[in-house]
Write a structure and sequence with these properties.
The chain has 129 residues and is an alpha/beta fold. It contains five helices and five strands. The chain has a five-stranded parallel sheet with strand order 2-1-3-4-5, with helices on both faces. Helix 1 links the parallel strand 1 and strand 2. 29% of the residues are buried. The structure holds manganese (II) ion.
């Protein structure tokens, strides 16, 4: 079975690029364009990892992470924040909100997949012996 990733991102170009990179690497990607939609989808998608944009309309990524961490069924899914806020303290803010990791935009297509794989639970990837 393919491993699935839920991408919560409002920017269409970013959704396209991230979906492309992950799909090329064998992941199944489902995306949500807002925090409330993403929260609504987590239960049905049951992703192996959540990629969470921080700059979102109506509900920012920190609030989304906090909401997900309050749900005991969803608490164990790794969340990686993806943000263009290159400000001191943002990493700490993301971790404090419940994120497991943090990747800065613009993402590097060469290293993006391996960066997020560090946060996936360590099980064998499909196709490896
Ligand atoms: Mn955004």
């Amino acid at each position: 079975m393919k491993r699935s990733i839920l991408l919560i991102e409002d920017n269409e170009q970013n959704r396209y690029l991230v979906t492309y990179l992950l799909t090329q690497s064998g992941y199944s990607v489902v995306s949500a364009t807002s925090g409330p939609l993403g929260i609504q989808m987590v239960g049905t998608v049951n992703p192996d990892l959540i990629l969470l944009d921080i700059q979102l309309p109506e509900m920012d990524g920190y609030a989304v992470a906090r909401a997900l961490r309050q749900d005991s069924h969803l608490r164990r899914i790794p969340i990686v924040a993806v943000t263009s806020y290159a400000m001191v303290g943002d990493r700490e803010k993301a971790i404090a909100a419940g994120c497991d990791g943090y990747i800065e935009k613009p993402i590097d297509p060469q290293t993006f997949v391996s960066e997020i794989e560090r946060f996936l639970p360590a099980i064998r990837k499909e196709g490896t012996p």
